[in-house]
Each structure stands twice: as C-alpha cells, then as structure tokens.
Amino acid sequence: MIDFETPEKIVGVCTVIKTVADNMMRPVSRHFDENEHEIPWDYINFMHTAARAMGGSSMAPGDSKKEGPRIGFQRLAHMVEMLSWGDAGIYLDTPGGMLGSAAVSATGTPEQKERFLARFRGETPTFDAMCMTEAGAGSDTSAIRTTAVLDKNTKEWVLNGEKIFVTAGHKALVDSQGFIVVWATIDPSAGRAGMRPFVVEAGTPGCQVTKMEHKLGIRASDTVSIVLQDCRVPFDNILGSPEVVTDKATTGFKGAMATFDATRPIVAAQAIGLARATLELLKEMLAEKGVTIRYGLPRQKLTSIEKDVIDMEILLRSAWWLVLKAVWMMDNGKPNALESSMSKVRAGDVVNRITQKAVEIMGPLGYSREYLLEKWFRDAKISDIYEGTGQINRLVVARQILGYRSSELR
C-alpha cells in the first residue's frame, strides 16, 4: 500500500539538495535567464562531483541494491522537485542520466544499459538527450520520418533525418562525450511497428547540431535541432529487436511509451517545484505588505486574496500527491500509464495557474524583473508542452479510463 510519508533516506538527500538550490541556483537564476545558452558550470561540476562521491549518477533513479528497490523514482521525483524550486532551467543542466538514459533503461538490454549508462560515473560531467520530435511529427510519434537503414556489408545502421526541440542536445553532443537516443523508422510502411530507438554517441560523423533555440522560459537549458545525414552507428546501438512484427504492439513503440511512463511524473515534479517556489515567494511578498492568510476561518469571511492563496495551496498539494502515486507505482513495478499522464496533466495545469495568479495578485511587482515571479511564469509553460502536451496526455487518460485504443479515440 502506498505510504505518503517521505522515506528517511529521501529526506536526507533533499536536505542536501535544498542547500544546493539555495546557494548555487537561486542567486544566479536571473543571470542565466538573461544570458541564454551560457552554461552554469559551477553548478554542473559540483553536482557531478557530489554524485560521484555518492557512487552514482546525480539524476539516475538509483541503485536498488544500495538503497532498496522501492524508492528510486520516488527519490528522483523529490530531487527534481527541490532542484526546480531552485531554478527549473538550471535543473535541466544537471549532469547524469536524463531522457536519453530513461529510453535506454526502458528498452535496452542489460549489456546496453551498462555500456551506455556507465559513462555518467566517469571523471567529467556527461549529458544525454532524447530525439523524437520532428517538423512533421510532434505529438503523433507514428508520423516519424527519420529513417534507419541497415548496411548489410558493414553491419551498421545508417540514419537520415532531422530532429527538433531536443532538450540538452548541445550539451550531450558538443559539451560532453554523451549520447542522444534517436527514434527512427526501420520500415516506413509499417507505421509504429517500424519505430526503433538508436543510441548515437557524441563525435559520430553525420550527426550535427544545427540550431539553438531562443526560448520563452527555461533559458538556462539548451534546446536544439539535430540533423542526421548518412550517420552510421554500430548494429548493437539499436535498442530492442530489429525485427518488424506488424500484427501486434512492438518493442519500439512500447519502449517509447514505457519511457514516457517513467519520465512524465518527473516532468510533473519539475512543475510542482516551480509552483511551490512561486507560492512561497507570493506569501512572503504579501506578508511584507501586511497581508496574512487567516487559515481556519469560514470561506465567506476570507478576503479574495486569502481565498486565492488557499485554493493555490490545495491545487499544489493534490498535484504533488498524484506525482507521488505515479512514482511509487513505478518503483513497485506496477503499470502506471494512467497515473503517469494524470500527474503530468494536473501538474502542468497547476503550475500555470499558480504562476499566472501570483503575477496577477502582485500586479506591477509580479510583472517586474526585480522579482522572479515573472520568470517563473515564463518557465512554467514548458511543463504543459514537453513529454507529451496536456492535450495528448488528456487523450491518454481518457483512453485508459474508457478502454479505447488510439485509433478509436483521437
């Protein structure tokens, strides 16, 4: 049965992370927002050193042999929530396993997991990224047109295509010896049955970062376009079976969905941390103006601002509980596709509502760059977009509840 009490080991980790957020993230938050694409190396190097001292990757779910089999994703959710409380953009610069690693973990063989994930335990900070979105394939992954063709003479896969909006792609390929996971089709006529993930390592000829986006929020994190032109990767860099079976769900598409089941609650945790930071600062600013929240009074006796703040606290707590349930299920090997998407939908809504309302309540002060409220308002929107938009996740939830397939409810 799920227990909402935070495990003692996670409390200890969060105490350390809180210190990092207070001292290494908040003080430079505005600087890295206004100097987009500048890399926060002090933070990165510290997190990498700390992770190595603890014997692992800073953002990996955790080694169950060391900390027990039931808290890895729960620990990660708490860490991400606290780091995002510090700064959501800088958090995305944390070295170690991110979305690409999640794909390897969900679809790779034991040998591939060791081969590709071991590099995060090396001496220098390393990054990874996941490449799925294309100009003609956003939420509809079955529309992917990047191809992977097997060269039977060399036993290499030849990849061609372009991926856009790749989070941390520059750090994975240019700023470190990391890798990207590219989703491509090995049989375009087979639709989703032909979709497979491939690991492309930094320095691979034919793989090039072509554009760095200028964004509304999370500006400390790079978002790039990547072109693959006759990019050759070893045969063993395909994650999952190369066999195409068209009459049933395939390891490729199922692997993509399994990746999202693991990562969507973590994106939701990012949203929760940002929303909590906003709500806490709002209450501090109101207190400075002599406005206190009178808890315990009947609602009809509260001011409009008091009602707003209490409603925001309710929204935040309910969204966090959904995240905790989704990651608890992940840790305990329970199917969590429904809970994963529900947590992301809810958290994406809540962080946008809370950050917008905070800016509205504080008026000119909320709109001013003197405070971080306006930055957090901009940072919030991405939570409802990446890892599946709010609309797509609502579809996933509806299909799960009603028992429809994607072809029956679109």
Topology, element by element:
Layout: H1 8-25, H2 29-34, H3 41-53, H4 64-67, H5 72-86, H6 88-91, H7 99-107, H8 110-117, E1 128-131, E2 147-151, E3 156-167, H9 169-173, E4 179-185, E5 195-201, E6 207-212, E7 223-234, H10 251-288, H11 304-331, H12 337-362, H13 364-367, H14 373-380, H15 390-402
Parallel strand pairs: 1-4
Antiparallel strand pairs: 2-3, 3-7, 4-5, 6-7
The strand count comes to 7
The CATH superfamily of the largest domain appears as Butyryl-CoA Dehydrogenase, subunit A, domain 3
What count of domains describes the coordinates?
A: 3
CATH fold-level label of the largest domain: Butyryl-CoA Dehydrogenase, subunit A, domain 3
Shape: globular
CATH class of the largest domain: Mainly Alpha
Which percent range describes the beta-strand content?
Answer: 5-15%
Structural class: alpha+beta
Number of helices: 15
Q: What's the alpha carbon Rg, rounded to whole Å? A: 21 Å
What is the makeup of the main sheet? 4 strands, antiparallel
Give the H and E element order: HHHHHHHHEEEHEEEEHHHHHH
Percentage of residues assigned to helices: 40-55%
How far apart the termini lie comes to 34 Å
> What are the low-pLDDT stretches, counting only 5+ consecutive residues below 50?
63-69
CATH architecture of the largest domain: Up-down Bundle
Arithmetic mean pLDDT: 92
What keyword list fits this structure?
410 residues; alpha+beta; Butyryl-Coa Dehydrogenase, subunit A, domain 1; Butyryl-CoA Dehydrogenase, subunit A, domain 2; Butyryl-CoA Dehydrogenase, subunit A, domain 3; four-stranded antiparallel sheet; three-stranded mixed sheet; 15 helices
